[in-house]
Design brief:
It contains 10 helices and 9 strands. It is globular and about 55 Å long. Helix 6 crosses helix 7. The protein has helices at residues 7-14, 31-43, 76-83, 95-98, 117-120, 124-139, 151-163, 193-199, 201-214, 220-233; strands at residues 2-4, 19-25, 50-56, 89-91, 143-147, 169-173, 237-245, 258-267, 270-279. A hairpin with a 2-residue loop joins strand 8 and strand 9. The chain folds into 2 domains: 2-173, 3-Layer(aba) Sandwich (Rossmann fold), CATH 3.40.50.620; 186-279, Pantoate--beta-alanine Ligase, Chain: A,domain 2 (2-Layer Sandwich). Bound molecules: pantoate (PAF). Residues 24-26, 59, 62, 128, 131-132, 150, 153 line the site of pantoate.
Length: 282
């Protein structure tokens, strides 16, 4: 694996690659990221001149003023060790390489970016989409991979790629979970021991809602309300629990068969995110 931190070095290294698969990350890598690296390799075989590129960049543009940008875990040495063997090129630009001047041009994400996670994190998806577009232009991959745990992020990236005609295929990787079901996330390490055992309850709630819908429950408002009340009673502070159409992430319509239940809630200062897909069959 070769690690570079400037765009010029990266371009020189990639000039001979016949196909590039790209996994953008903010580092503090876990099995969810490594799963995306493996998926990337499946897309571009080394023997055919294929190259797997990963980036680690904690993007200031997608953090709000009171969010965890400064304390976001930066673990470059451990990350490099984890990537050895699975990635060909690692791009780790410093902030002034990505933003040499103040960024005044942004991607304006679709209106759905103001709902769900966007409601509690104004500007987050605008900053995320802007850096993803920059990274795609810098790396110029044929395929880019993102985790389904950040379901709304993946949806917005797909919309950006489709509507701006970007020449890249987007692949979503399944959420990787701890043995007890908790979705892996770099933010899990903020959890105290007691909160870590409670954290699993978020996925349990989603599984319960999925089962209820599969068993015929159609009053999703009631399901959402019950889930929120249960979480609050257990000490969570809830941003949202929402049953949405998978295609557009708008509130579930009766005619839609492919749904997704999304949730974001906090334990102490730690904000956890999860989702589960529901497919209705007659
Ligand atoms: O999901 C992430 O880690 C980030 O939002 C991404 C896609 C790397 C953009 O900064």
């Amino acid at each position: 694996m070769q690690a570079v931190s400037t765009i010029a070095e990266l371009r020189a290294l990639l000039s001979k690659a016949r196909a590039i698969a790209f996994v953008p990350t903010m580092g503090n890598l876990h099995e969810g990221h490594l799963n995306l690296m493996r998926l990337a390799r499946e897309n571009v075989a080394r023997e055919h001149g294929g190259c797997v590129v990963a980036s680690i960049f904690v993007n200031p543009l997608q953090f709000g003023p009171n969010e965890d940008f400064d304390r976001y875990p930066r673990t470059l040495e451990a990350d490099c060790a984890k990537l050895q063997g699975s990635v060909d090129v690692l791009f780790t630009p410093p902030v002034n390489e990505m933003y040499p001047a103040q960024q005044t041009v942004f991607v304006e994400p679709p209106p759905i970016a103001n709902e769900l996670c966007g409601a509690a994190r104004p500007g987050h998806f605008r900053g995320m989409a802007t850096v993803v577009l920059k990274l795609l232009n810098i790396v110029q991959p044929q395929v880019a991979l993102f985790g389904k745990k950040d379901y709304q992020q993946l949806h917005i990236i797909r919309q950006m790629v489709a509507q701006l005609n970007l020449p890249v295929g987007i692949v979503g990787g399944e959420t990787v979970r701890a043995a007890d079901g908790l979705a892996l996330s770099s933010r899990n390490q903020y959890l105290s021991e007691a909160d870590r055992s409670e954290a699993i309850f978020l996925y349990k709630i989603l599984q319960g809602m999925q089962l209820a819908i599969l068993q015929g429950e159609r009053d999703v408002e009631r399901l959402q309300q019950q889930a929120v009340e249960t979480l609050i009673a257990r000490g969570w502070s809830v941003d949202y629990v929402a049953v949405r159409n998978r295609s557009d992430l708008l509130p579930a319509s009766q005619s839609q068969r492919d749904l997704v239940i999304l949730a974001a809630a906090r334990l102490g200062n730690t904000r956890l995110l999860d989702n589960i897909e529901v497919c209705l069959v007659d």
